[in-house]
Amino acid sequence: MKFKTQVITCFGMIYGIYAIFSVYHWTSMDNYEHDIEGYIKSYSMLNLAYSIHEWVNVYSKESRELFANPPNKYIEQFTKNQDKSLQNVNEALDAYQKVDRSKESQEIVKKLKTIVKNYSEIDKEMDVLLKEGKKEEVSQLYWNQGRAVSDKMIELSNQLQTIQNEITNEKLNQSLKKYIQTTKITKIYMLLDYLMGGTLFSWILWNVTRRLNKVSSVMAEVNFDSLEKLPRINMKTKDEIGKIALSFNEMAQALEEHTLHEKELKNATEEQSWLKTKVAEFATMYSGIDDLETLGHLFITKLTPIIGANYGLFYIKRSIGDEDVFQKIATYAYNQQKIGTDHFRFGEGLVGQCALENRMIVLNQVPNNYIKITSGTGMASPSEILIIPVEYQGEVLSVIELASFQSFSHLEQLLLKEIIRNLGINIQSIIRHMQVERLLQESQALTEELQSQSEELQSQQEELRIVNEQIETQYENAEKKTRELENVQSILEEKAQQLSLSSQYKSEFLANMSHELRTPLNSLLILAQMLAENVDGNLTAKQMNYADTIFSSGNDLLHLINDILDISKVEAGKMEITMNEVKLSDVKKFVDSQFTPVARKKNIQFNIQLASNLPTYIHTDTHRLQQILNNLLSNAFKFTNHGTVSLTIQKVEKGMYAKQSAFLHSDIEFAFSVKDTGIGIPAENHAIIFDAFKQADGTINRKYGGTGLGLSISQEISRLLGGFIEVESIEGNGSTFTLYLPNNKNLNSSVISLSEAEVATGLLEASGSGPITPVVSSVRSEEVRKQLHERKALLEGKKVLVVDDDMRNIFALTTALESYHVEVMFAENGREGITILQKNPEVDLILMDIMMPEMDGFEAIQFIRKIPKFQSLPIIALTAKAMKYDRNQCIEAGASDYISKPVNLEQLISIMRVWLYR
Amino acid sequence: MNNNRPKDHNELEEIEINLLLEGIFRYYGFDFRNYTFPFLNRRIWNRMREEKIASISGLQEKIFHDPFVMNRLLDDFSINVTEMFRDPSFFLSFRKKIVPFLRDSPYIRIWHAGCSTGEEVYSMAILLHEEGLYEKTRIYATDMNESVLRVGKEGKFPLHKMQLYTKNYLASGGKKAFSEYYKVQNENASFHSFLTKNVVFAQHNLVTDRSFNEFHVIICRNVMIYFDKVLQNRVYNLLHESLGLSGILGLGSKEGIKFTSIADDYEEVDTFEKLYRRIQ
């Protein structure tokens, strides 16, 4: 049965019984109260009855007193008293009547009332009599009537009293009886109740306590030290305590599991902490180690025991030769057994394999002839061997091999992994450190070297400085000398100039003299010839001989004069060139006809060769070409006594002319080569043969004749034709003279005068300085004249104010403008300019310089623009400043336009025309 | 095969500098393209450090889009190393050799090209004053950089430099007490205004602008050492254009006209002090 039910039942019963009892008690109490009320009522009626009795007595007394003939002074008071007591009686009677329920007494009361009334009437009678003074009657009244009534009255009241007494007592007794009954029943009930209640209560208590005890005893059994094994409450009932038991059992279960779980966690944490401690130990171990051997040794010594191994080997990667090899550098419990190797390559053996794969290798079943772990008391094979790679960023740096009698626990393997990870980093850092050390040493060595070198340099610098000073003094000396030399040079130049001038005069003179010289000579020759012909036949043979001699001498003289005149013409710059189309075959014919006889006479072979790729015509001056070829060939024949003379005409290839390639030779096309087998020209004379008035040596004239002018003339002429002459010769081995010519298609057949060209260029150069650039007009003269006329018309008569502090400008502008009939005024600065303008307000245009003292152009322009009548006066700014910003500034200041210095006159006139246009 | 290997770093910088200068010329009109390369390099890198820019091309961007940066660079490019009576022997020589010749002229025009903050100009003014030539002289003082011209116009120089300047002045043949020419104001020496009565300060760029007058004396000292040969020749020609016949050209102690295009038109008045007279 459920506990709840039990309790409910138990207490329900108790409660029920009690409820019944209470109802009973309630009712009886009510009855009791009712009775008591009745009793009290009776009692009060009794009291009333007593009262009535008393008042009746008093009344009768009072009346008796009156009946007893009191002294008069008391009558009033006694009457009053009597009335009062009568009144009281009546009141009491009324009161009694009101509450009276008993028939008996009601009758009596009625009677009494009647009696009292009777008596009062008697009283009243008495009063009257009294007042009348009929005392005797009064007495009579009393003794006859009064007393009997009064006695009746008293008797009645007594009766009433008695009845009421009885009633009251009756009631009281009844009440008492009832009360006793009630008390009895109550007692019974109470007893019953106690008994029942007690029983039930005990039973329940016992039940509950028993079971609770069970529970608590089990709970008490719980051993808090070993929470993984808890007792269970064995209770089958399904009531609340059963539920508690169940819950307890469940909780116990949960607690057991939790404890177990906790234990596991704790274990794990301990493991972790152990791991971390060990790892930390290892981490701190690395500080201060800076070489690998120490590291290896320290490491393996520390690691092996911690990990639970009995034997350890530390291999590090080294470069031996050009291979990477893992070399054993440290051991633990090594006993020099000759099993196992000192070094492995990648992939060699398990160590090498481990390194290659970068994966740990575990050997669980170690064969017998493997390494043995030894101590003083014996030796045995290990039961597990681990080979672990140590890597840094994917590169295997080291391999650790560990052997143990026991298997490596999971925890130990974890530790190993952690430590190895750190180790990799540290090995790397040591390697780096070693590298840095090495580099440091190297750099130190270098620094020392540098230092010594720097010292060397310093001393060198010192030397250099001294040398420098010496050089400076030398330079100064050199400068001085140079200046002297320059002086000399300028003197020389002057002299040379004078010389050239004089030679020019000479040449001019000679050129002019050509006619003067040739005319008499011609007549001489003709006459001599005529004489030699001996037409009249009147001369002797000797005389004819004389005439011949005169003729040939004259001829020689003529040739000489021609040569002299030619060279002087060339030097005076008056040689004329006429370009035309020259047929090369004609050239050949000419040369042939000229020199074949000469060749025959001297018995020299004469060849003329024309190359096949030559054009039919070339553009050049026929006469001059012939002159040059003539000269070259005659020289060739002159200086050759036997052998060959040949003329070759060919097209030019690159590189054919080596000596004068610096000259303007881009358009040379043809080469005329005269080759001979004559006496040749020594190398040192190759240059001077082209000089005028010089022959290779002073004796040549005597032996070979000639003026020595030919080659120089030829050279000059060739230059005029746009080409040049080159010589190749070896003394005793003949010579080759080559004339190079361009194909002058572009040259107009107009007169090209050498000297005129020079003068023109000279003029152009000289005109570069100064503020005004002379105008080079290439327009046809007609148009120029027209333009000029127009301009002149627009500018004529205008007034222009020039404001500039540069006197050159003022001068130049004034001159130029006045040539256009412009009236020019000028001022040297802004202030002056304004003053002049104000004095001459009819100025048409102002040319305003910018950079001036006192008041610059900007200020002046601004000032002028402020004056209303000059607001639209054209002002052209002359600025030496070239930047856009500066020019814009001119416009912003109020200028109408600007023109830059140095002033281009043409441009200035244009601008002025624009602004003077009306 | 790597035919498109980028040019090495120095070449790239050179290209960047050239582009920068070209850009500056095209946009602002200032022509620094012919200044000497080491000078340009130094000044440009300095500006980059100041502006915290990492590359020259970056500086170019700033130059185009922020005129203040251009101004600062302009200041960088202005060479402002100057003292009063710098190289006193120059001024001494000027006094001894040039002044007597100037006495004959009715008036004198002198041009200080590249006058910077004006120390040189004031020195010349003092010298002419002492020689009694100031009244008939007009001095034109020009520089590319407007801000230094403003300083020059003010005539206030730091007080702590006065010691050096006094020494220089005395060594240059100064006849009076140097302190007569200035009065002390706070930390500056303020030169009397009578010294600049006949001085015209104007902005003029030797690289881009042309001749604006003809002078009797042109002083252009230590301006062209940062120009390359091409530019130097151009400037020498400009000076030549602006100098009258028998005019005097004065150069800096490390300069000389010997290998310039105008060399033949001048004779030496003082070789050491680089004073030349135009003879044609």
Can you lay out the helices and strands and say which pair or pack?
The complex is a heterodimer of chains A (918) and B (280).
Chain A: H1 3-67, H2 72-99, H3 103-132, H4 135-221, H5 240-285, H6 292-307, E1 311-320, E2 323-332, E3 343-345, H7 349-357, E4 361-363, E5 373-375, E6 378-380, E7 384-392, E8 395-404, H8 410-533, H9 541-572, E9 580-583, H10 584-602, E10 605-610, E11 617-620, H11 622-638, E12 644-651, E13 668-676, H12 700-704, H13 710-720, E14 724-729, E15 735-742, H14 754-766, H15 781-795, E16 799-803, H16 807-819, E17 823-827, H17 830-839, E18 845-849, H18 857-866, E19 875-879, H19 884-893, E20 897-900, H20 905-916
Parallel strand pairs in A: 10-12, 16-17, 16-18, 18-19, 19-20
Antiparallel strand pairs in A: 1-2, 1-8, 2-3, 4-7, 5-6, 7-8, 9-11, 12-13, 13-15, 14-15
Helix pairs in contact in A: 1-2, 1-3, 1-4, 2-3, 3-4, 4-5, 5-8, 6-8, 8-9, 9-13, 10-11, 11-13, 17-18
Chain B: H1 9-28, H2 37-51, H3 56-65, H4 67-77, H5 88-102, E1 108-113, H6 119-130, E2 137-143, H7 146-154, E3 156-158, H8 162-171, E4 182-185, E5 188-191, E6 199-203, E7 215-220, H9 229-241, E8 243-251, E9 266-270, E10 275-278
Parallel strand pairs in B: 1-2, 1-7, 2-6, 7-8
Antiparallel strand pairs in B: 3-5, 4-5, 8-10, 9-10
Helix pairs in contact in B: 1-3, 2-4, 3-4
Organism (chain B): Peribacillus loiseleuriae
Domain CheR-type methyltransferase (chain B): 5-257
Pfam family, one (chain B): CheR
